[in-house]
Amino acid sequence: MKKLLFQFDTDTHPSVFDTVVGYDGGADHVIGHGGLMPENITGLVEGAMFTRAPKDKKNTAIFVGGSDIVAGQKLFTAVQNCFFPGFQVSVMLDSNGSNTTAAAAVAKLACSGALAGKKAVVLAGTGPVGQRAAAMLALEGANVSLTGRKMERAEEACNNMKQRFGVDLTPVEAFDNNARARAIENANIVLAAGASGVELLKADQWQFNNSIEMIADANATPPLGIGGTDMLDKGNLRHGKVIWGAIGFGSLKLALHRACIAKLFEDNKLVLDAENIFALAKEMALL
What we know:
This protein is an alpha/beta fold. The chain contains 9 helices and 12 strands.
């Protein structure tokens, strides 16, 4: 029986990246639907969960993506609200790679040193990856600040993560590189989650900071988010700091994404979100 992965995307066009990884994760067919909202997915979910016998339902799964994690979370919840006993399929949330990318980055940081009790700053953390990474760091016991160009957006992101995970994050307004340099003055851990091609810190704004122990940069498009690092850094030591570049932890991100897709087809009752995706990332990071 064919393994069918239905890609439910909140954007107009389903992500090509997610489609490719869906196939690489073991799906025989990936069927993408864009522009989805809680109001228009009932028929699609019912089509997925009513068409196969109970023993065969594990061969159908749903992947929720898109660029907006808040919209994705709402769609993810709406999908599950369509389920009832005996009629459901496995479902995964990874809007803009938020869960898998954040989980891989934080898992690699956790392999490099202790997170509990450390001061962590997530730069440009108002996007999907930044929000989830900040929450995961907090769940590991770090004291986390999240920066945004505008305080309003930083506060909104922190409130979203408080509502979703019950963690307390500190919002920081940091409009430019100098403000971000001030935000990390006493940080032990810095994770950059900015937009592609945007430099958040220049090299000399972190290289001489003696409090910083570890850095991870999720940006793989030059210029990198953290100047003076390399996208290929895999726990490299630079200026006394352990550095993880986007490609350096990206191999774990891709392996994790593929592993999650494969798991969707093991059972029809799996719900993969940040917590269990992060748990799997920590296991895989040790291999």
